[in-house]
Design a protein that fits this description.
By secondary structure, the chain is α/β, with parallel strands linked by helices. The chain starts with 11 loop residues before the first strand and ends in a 7-residue tail after the last helix. Helices cover 32% and strands 26% of the residues. It has four helices and seven strands; from the N terminus they run ββαβββαβαβα.
Length: 164
């Protein structure tokens, strides 16, 4: 019941905070995919005292094509349920899957990889959710990358802090 919606009314932003509509993002994805690029989707969240900030990123990165750019959306929620780590992490995954499905809706040929901010080492508090999340993501047909290879979730992390 918590699930955030990938709101079509809010704009995507670039790293400078400039707004872009879905039509622009569609063209960006189509051009990049036509050149053989893989689309990377990352999400992250930050729990603050009275709210939780989430961010979703659509990233393009290719050394061969000399491309490195991304667009993000940020979501703020006052929900206290996110104080529970599992609820917060599963919401990040749900948002990542929703964003990946959005990419495929815009460009069905896109090759999409999900980057989730969880670790697999025992010292990571999130490691106990790895199997669950791996099954969920691969069950939706997407490739999954986790720490330390989930660089797109690190991009999202930068936009959970409340800056632009």
């Amino acid at each position: 019941a918590l699930s955030l919606e990938l709101d079509t009314k809010t704009y995507w932003k670039d790293c400078d905070g400039k707004d872009y509509d879905d039509e622009f993002i569609k063209k960006e994805i189509e051009e990049y995919v036509a050149q053989g690029g893989r689309v990377y989707v990352g999400t992250d969240s930050m729990l603050l005292a009275h709210k939780c900030n989430f961010a979703a990123v659509i990233a393009f990165h290719s050394r061969d094509l000399n491309i490195a750019r991304y667009y993000y959306k940020r979501f703020k929620t006052g929900s206290l349920e996110y104080k529970e780590l599992q609820v917060k992490i599963l919401e990040e995954v749900a948002l990542a899957i929703q964003t990946a499905q959005f990419v495929l809706k815009l460009c069905p040929d896109a090759d999409v990889e999900l980057h989730i901010d969880i670790g697999t080492k025992k010292r990571n508090a999130t490691a106990r959710f790895f199997k669950k999340i791996q099954g969920w993501v691969t069950g939706t047909g997407f490739d999954l990358k986790v720490k330390p290879n989930s660089w797109a979730s690190s991009l999202a992390d930068g936009h959970t802090k409340g800056k632009k």
